[in-house]
Predict the 3D structure of the following.
Amino acid sequence: MKLQKNTLSAQVKDILLDRIVKGRYKPGDPLVELTIAKELGVSQAPVREALQALESMRFVETGSNRRTRVREISSRESCDGTRVRGLLEEAAALHAAPYLKEHTAELQAEFDGMTRAYEAKDVDVLIAHLVSFHRVIITNGGNSVLAEVWESLSYEAKSRIYARKVAHSMLAKGIEFHKEILDAFTAGDGPKAARLLREQADRAAEFQLQTPATTGDEGKAEK
């Protein structure tokens, strides 16, 4: 696997994160710099930087023995993070609504992408569009600190984990809910859009509270 030199650490991080999300690396599994570097054909430096980034995202942890392992993400931690996301999106929606009423093309494009991905049964692409849908709202909320905190919640990676735990038909309900959010913004109804975003996050948080975060391919969504 040949990687581009200018973004080595970012590419290594994405590869390792994808393996964690898909369950190839499970909680407690060691991540050894030298082993990973040899496998990917890079030096240890970008691997070290990638592991540091994953630690800041709370997907790995380094013990007192300086060994890095995949971190167990508790149901409570996931639930709490999702509720915080809901609060942030609720606040952003109120400020973004006037702009998005006149500029719904981005939201519509991401919604259409979700629908196509659902029909193709491509969970990862569906989640990518879903997260981009929410990011459009956040970035138009006019608060850069709020946006930074939102990004720190690793919404996409954690959503990919949980999407593998639900029946495929349940994902359709999520898409329908996002159509309501889109319609609220199209109508310029910021309070309604804010309420729906908060409700969506609260529903997801309740599911996470009852479901372990870490998954493997055996947890893929059923048809």
Remarks:
- Residues 90 and 197 are 6 Å apart (CA to CA).
- The two ends are 32 Å apart (CA to CA).
